[in-house]
């Protein structure tokens, strides 16, 4: 698994990014964030704040109209998703993130598109890391449980040995137990050396496992701090726990 990081300390810097979908629509109105080697960083905020849009803009699926995205010292703002992937961005979308009619093994295989010669070796590494995938390698992805599917989606994101993994609401729709297990898998992955940037609806649980967090409101940065400090903050608790 590749490690990110730069001599000057920044793996990813997002600076004043403006982005949207329609000709006139601005969803992100000047968002900034950074992530350093070794970190788990969470982006939280109310529905419609632009969290997924920010992640997609970093992945190169939505283009930035203003601002800059610097990855490992390289300005990747003008690059599309493939260019960003080549620079080490792995992106796990929230929905439709596995091919249901294909087996687990086939899902892994087609995800290793950047380095076909390494597909077998990386699949075996992932089977060793996630024995559930090994036992289900010939099962169709649509037969997996929600939590198993998310592990597969994450493993697919790892097939190109990214320097940074972006996760869009990885625990969406999971039972509390499955969500807890997925958070444990995310922490283990990070401890193995992979920086992670995630968007989460389970805001407090995500902050508790994060080095730092950002609160996004209406397409702008609202708050920023260490994960545990934000999780303990009365204003954040009121916003996300409703009391
Ligand atoms: N493909 C799209 N085309 C047009 N508008 C979109 C598109 N995707 C998202 N939007 C709009 O952009 C805004 C921000 O959406 P986004 O999904 O980034 O928010 P979010 O903070 O991730 O919200 P949620 O927590 O509800 O997923 C919303 O108003 C949404 O309707």
Automatic annotation (TrEMBL):
Pfam families: ABC_tran. One of its GO terms (biological process) is L-amino acid transport. GO terms for molecular function: ATP binding; ATP hydrolysis activity; branched-chain amino acid transmembrane transporter activity. CDD domains: ABC_TM1139_LivF_branched (cd03224). Residues 12-243 form the ABC transporter domain. It comes from the Bacteria. Keywords: Amino-acid transport, ATP-binding, Nucleotide-binding, Transport. Signal peptide: none annotated. Belongs to the ABC transporter superfamily. PANTHER family: HIGH-AFFINITY BRANCHED-CHAIN AMINO ACID TRANSPORT ATP-BINDING PROTEIN LIVF (PTHR43820:SF4). This is ABC transporter ATP-binding protein. It comes from Bosea vaviloviae. The lineage of its organism: Bacteria, Pseudomonadati, Pseudomonadota, Alphaproteobacteria, Hyphomicrobiales.
């Amino acid at each position: 698994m590749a490690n990110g990081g730069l001599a000057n300390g920044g793996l990813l810097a997002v600076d004043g990014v403006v982005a949207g979908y329609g000709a006139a629509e601005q969803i992100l109105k000047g968002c900034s964030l950074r992530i350093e080697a070794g970190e788990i960083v969470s982006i939280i905020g109310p529905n419609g704040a632009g969290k997924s849009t920010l992640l997609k803009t970093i992945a190169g699926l939505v283009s930035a109209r203003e601002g800059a995205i610097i990855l490992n010292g390289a300005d990747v703002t003008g690059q599309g998703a493939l260019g960003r992937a080549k620079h080490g961005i792995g992106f796990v979308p929230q929905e439709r993130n596995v091919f249901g009619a294909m087996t687990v093994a086939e899902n892994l295989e087609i995800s290793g598109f950047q380095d076909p010669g390494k597909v077998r070796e990386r699949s075996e590494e992932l089977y060793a890391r996630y024995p559930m995938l090994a036992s289900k390698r010939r099962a169709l992805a649509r037969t997996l449980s929600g939590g198993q599917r998310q592990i597969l989606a994450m493993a697919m994101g790892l097939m190109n040995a990214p320097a940074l993994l972006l996760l869009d609401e990885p625990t969406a729709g999971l039972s509390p137990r499955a969500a807890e297990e997925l958070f444990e898998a995310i922490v283990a992955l990070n401890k193995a050396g992979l920086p992670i940037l995630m968007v989460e609806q389970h805001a407090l649980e995500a902050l508790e496992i994060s080095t730092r967090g950002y609160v996004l409101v209406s397409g702008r940065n609202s708050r920023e701090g260490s994960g545990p400090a934000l999780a303990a903050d009365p204003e954040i608790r009121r916003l996300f726990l409703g009391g």
